[in-house]
Amino acid sequence: MRTPHPPRSPFSTPLSGSAQETELRLRNIFQWKKGRPPMWLLGLALAVCLLCGSLVSCQSQPSIVQDDSLTQLLLEHTTLPDAPEGTPVTVQLLAQITQDGYTLGAAAVQQGNHYLLVLGAVDSHTLTPCGTFYQAVSNLPPHCIAITRYDGSPSLLYTCNGFSQGLSYGEAGLVALNGDSMVWGWPVEGDLRGEGSSSKAEYDAYWQSHHALLAPGGVDIFTQTDYAIITGDGPQWTPESNELFYPAAEDELPIGVMYQSRVWLEKFTRDKNNPLDAVNTSALWSIQSLTPDDFQYLNQADSQSAYTLLARADTDDGLYFAAHILFDQETGTISTAYDYAVGSLEEVTEQVLSDQAREEARSQFQQRDALILTYYQQPYPSQRFYWLDQEPSQPQEGDTRLDSVAYAGEAILYETTGVAFSVQRSLYSHGQWSPYPEPALIVLSQGQDGSFQSVLGEPNFSTDGMAIEDVIRQVNWHLLDLEVCLYRDGYPNPIGPGNWYDLFRPAYEGEPDLQILEGYTPIYYPGDHWESWSVEGFSALRYYQAAADRYTLNSVDVTRDDLYTPRGIRVGATRAEVLAAYPEAVSRDYWGLYPEQDYLWYSKYSNDFGAAILFFFQGDTLTQITLNGMFD
Asked: What is the pTM of this model?
C-alpha cells in the first residue's frame, strides 16, 4: 500500500514512473517552440474530450431504458440519500474499461440536488457484480474518463467535487482492475472499500487538504491555504502540481507551460470571469486543452510563444472559458492574454477560438498599438518612438522603443470600458538599449464593439495599494483623488479637483453665474485664466487651459442635497452618519482657512497636502460640503 504522494514541485523533473513518462519529461526539458498540430486533429481531440452520454430519466422507483445493462447495475447498487417520495432520479454512464473478462464502470446518479459517483466491477459475460461498489456524494456533477496509462494499462480517472457557502471540496482517484477487483493507484494504492480500510483513511486524509480538477494527461492538484473566505484574505485553493497519468497532446508543450497556465488562470479568474461571478474564488475551471498557436501577435517577442487555452467550469458542464495567452520563456510565466471569453462552447468558439475571431483580435490590437504609439509621440515630436518590431537597424541617441504590451485589467465606464495595459519601454543611450526601471501603465477606452477608441491617459498619482479598476476610473475622470469628488443624482460621472463635468443644464437650472478672475494667479500659459462658476447651492473655482480647451476644478462649495460623496454622504446628513462613513475624518484646523467654524475634514494624505473633503455643520446637521484640491 502506498501513502499519499508527497508534494511535487511544478519546477522539478521527477524521473520515476514508466520509461515513457521519463522520456517525455526529459524531452520537454530540451523543447521549447513546437509546431501546431493539424486543425483536424485538434478538432477531433476536442470532440472526443467533450463527448459524454445522455441522462436517462427514471421514475421515483429507479428504472432503466434502452437495455443499458451496465448502467442498470450501477444504478441498482447505488445507495440513494433520503429524499421526498417522487424525487426524480437520473443516471449517466460516464466511462468504462474492460480487462481479462471484467468491466469497470463509472456512473453519475442525480437525485434532486444530490449527485453520486458510483464505481463498480462486473463480469463482462454474466454481468454479475464483483464485490461491493464504491460511491461518493456531492452537489455537483462528477467527472470520469477512461484512460490508457503510460504503461498501457486501462484505468478510470475521476473527480467528484462539491461547493457550499463559498467553499469547494471533493475527492479524486485513479482506479483500475486487478483480476475481478477494482484497486486504486492514486492518490493511494489499494482498496478503499471494506470496514476499517487503511487505504480509505489515507485517501480521506489526503483530500482534507487537497483538491483536484481534470486536466490534459491527468489532473491539476491544489493545496489548501490559510484562507478566510468571509473576509476575502485569500483564495481557498492554490495550484500545487500536475499529476500525469496518460499521454496527451500537451505532453509536447515546453516544460512549465501547463503549470504556469494554471497559475495564470487562477489569478485571472479569481475575482471575475469565473463560473460563480464572485470574488476570491479558486479551482473552478478544469483545463480541457492547451494548444500551440501559430497566430503571430503584434509585438510578440522572440522569447514568447502563443497558446490557446480552453477550460470548462467544474460547477457547470455547459460553461467554458477560452483565451489566447503568451508564455514568456525568459520569465517562465504567462505574460499576457490577448483575447478571452466566457460562455457556452459555441459562444467562446465564435468570440475567441474561430479564425474570424482571431483576425478581429489582430485588427483591434493593431488599432490599440497605433493609439499607444501616437500617445507617446505627440508630446515629443522631435523624438523617435517605435515598437520593437519596427526598430531601425541604426537607432539614434534618445530613441524610445516600446518593447511589449501586456493586459493589466479593465473597468466598466459609462457606455465604454477602460482597459489598462502595462508597456515595457527602453531608451537608446550611449550606444545601447536600457530598459526603463518600471513599466508604464496606460489606459485606453474600448467601445462596445471591442474596438479601441482613444487613450484616456496614464496615472499621474500614486497607485500603491489601489485596485486596477480604481486606477482606471481615476485616470478616466482626471481626478486628483478618487475619494474626493461628488456625484449628482442622475449623472454617471463625478466632479472633483482635477476634472470638470457640467452637471447642470441651463434649461433646468438657469444660466450659471460666470466671472473671470482678473489678476488671479498663478497663470501657467498665455491665454489661461481663473474663473468662478456657480448656480444655486453650487459654487466652484476652476482653471481654464487654453491650449487644451479644458477646465480643471480647484475647489467647490455645495449646500444643495442632490450631490453626494463616493461614500453616500450628502447635505442633510447627521454628524454621526458622517463619522460612520468617514471614521478617518479629523476635527483639527485645516490650514487656517475656516477659523471658529464647526467642521470635520478627510484626506488620505497624512501630511494634509492632498485633495480633501470638508464637512460643515450647524448643530449636528451637515449643511455644506467643500472639496479642496489644495494646490493651484
From this structure: 0.63
